[in-house]
Amino acid sequence: MIKLKKFFNGRILVSGLAILLCFNLSYSQSLLWKISGKEAVRASYLYGTIHIADPRVFEWEDSIYKYLDRCEAFAAELDLSMETMITIAGMMMLPEGQTLRDRFTPEEYEMIKNAVKECSTYDISMFDKMKPPALIAICFANKQQDDLEGTVDELLYRHAKSKGLSTFGIETVEEQIALFDKIPDSYVVEYFRNIEEQ
């Protein structure tokens, strides 16, 4: 935590998937953490989020905004600017000349094609040049509530921008995509083969 305080030098709200397993069970419901200490110029806050638009993760209502309004900067797992989203979209593409058909057997491709159609209503041909794990993200996103404005991360980011806070990411797009690229095609096959259990 000292490194976090020194790096951000006070008053920041950091959003990201909090790993709370190492804490006592009595703290397992706490998603908002205050970071303070002798070396901190001001308090900072760490809020654990998850990147889904599910109503069950929106129970915080306006309570987090009051802490965000005390901050001078907001850091999410990634910078959520339009420029970042465009970069991510480009890095989600397969190498030139390669398509999803090249990554799967004909039987696997047909099975995935049907599963994607069922879970998203989209034809797989729309995503034929995207990396296989993107298909999971497409289906997962489609299962979320359509009436929600966005994920918790997105709402916090928009609020921070509306208040004129500096915003940035803790991780780079390259770091995120490197993890994404480690997902084997066999995992994608198993995901869609057992999609009802996901």
Sequence-ordered SSE layout with sheet pairings:
Blueprint: H1 2-8, E1 12-16, E2 32-35, E3 44-48, H2 63-68, E4 73-76, H3 82-91, H4 106-120, H5 133-142, H6 152-162, E5 166-169, H7 173-180, H8 185-193
Parallel strand pairs: 1-3, 1-4, 4-5
Antiparallel strand pairs: 2-3
Please, could you describe this protein's structure?
It is a single chain. This protein is an alpha/beta fold and 198 residues long. Helices cover 38% and strands 11% of the residues. The chain is built from eight helices and five strands. Strands 2-3-1-4-5 form a five-stranded mixed β-sheet. Strand 2 and strand 3 form a beta hairpin. The longest helix has 15 residues. The radius of gyration is 19 Å and the shape is elongated. It starts with a helix and ends in a 5-residue tail after the last helix. The relative contact order is 0.17. The N terminus is likely disordered.
Features of this protein?
single chain, 198 residues, alpha/beta, 38% helix, elongated
What can be said about this structure in brief?
The protein has helices spanning 2-8, 63-68, 82-91, 106-120, 133-142, 152-162, 173-180, 185-193, and strands at 12-16, 32-35, 44-48, 73-76, 166-169. By secondary structure, the chain is α/β, with parallel strands linked by helices.
Ends distance: 35 Å
> What is the strand content?
5-15%
Report the biggest beta sheet as strand number plus sense, adding barrel if it closes: 5 strands, mixed
Low-confidence stretches: 1-11, 16-28
> Which structural class do you get from the secondary structure elements?
alpha/beta
Write down the overall geometry. Answer: elongated
Question: With helices defined by DSSP (H or I, 4 residues minimum), what is the helix count?
Answer: 8
Relative helix content = 25-40%
Number of strands: 5
Main β-sheet, spatial strand arrangement: 2-3-1-4-5
Mean pLDDT: 80
Order of helices and strands: HEEEHEHHHHEHH
Work out the radius of gyration: 19 Å
